[in-house]
C-alpha cells in the first residue's frame, strides 16, 4: 500500500509550488501565534476566530463583544486589547470566551491554505507536538507542514518544529522533499536545547522577542506538550478537535 506524502513548505511565499488540494495543512507559527492558539484552547477558550487584518479583528470584537488580540512585528497591534503571548490567556481569564486573533504571519498562511483548497487545516506548535503527530499518523492522508516564517522569510523556530514532526512521523509517510530533510536534520542538531541553539545561532526571532524582554515566552513556546490539544479550523473558527 502506498504511503501518503509529506512536504514541508518553509515559507508562505513557496506555497504556490505545492498541491494543497486533498491535503492536511499544518499551520506552524511557533513564536507565537500557534502556541497562543493551543494555550488558549487548552485553557478553555470557547473558540478562536483567526483574521488577517487588525481592522477586521476590531470590527468582529465589537460585533461579537469578545476579546480582540494580536500583534504586528512582535508587539500588541494598536486598537487591540491583548497581545500574542500565551501567558496572557490563563484559564481564569479565557475560559468560555471567544478570542479574535490576528498575527503578522500565522493567520495569513492559514487563509492562504484555505483559499487553495486544503482538506483540513490544523495548527501546530511544540506545545501540542504529540497531538499533531498522532493525528497525522492516524489519518493517513497527504500532509503539508506549512511554516508561517517571518514576512515570507524562512525562520529557524518554525523549521525546527517541522523537523520535530518529520522525525516522529517519517516511517508513516513518503517523504521525497529536501525541505523536510533539512528541517529534520536541523532539529536533530538542536533538540537537546532548542533555546540555546536559537541563541547561539542568532535566530532573528530570538533577537526580536528578546529585545522586548520576552525570553520567558520563547522558552515556553519551545517546550513540548504543555497544551497538548489539536486546534482545527472549521467554518471560520479554531476549535479543539474532539
Question: How would you characterize this protein structure?
Answer:
With 242 residues, this protein is α/β, with parallel strands linked by helices. The chain has ten helices and ten strands. It has helices at 33-42, 54-64, 91-94, 106-115, 129-139, 156-169, 178-190, 194-200, 204-210, 215-221, and strands at residues 6-9, 24-28, 47-50, 67-72, 75-76, 98-102, 120-124, 143-147, 231-234, 237-240. The protein has a four-stranded parallel β-sheet with strand order 1-8-2-7, sandwiched between helices. A four-stranded mixed β-sheet has the order 3-6-4-5. A two-stranded antiparallel sheet has the order 9-10. α5 packs across α6 (156-169) and α6 (156-169) crosses α7 (178-190). The two termini are 28 Å apart. 51% of the residues are buried.
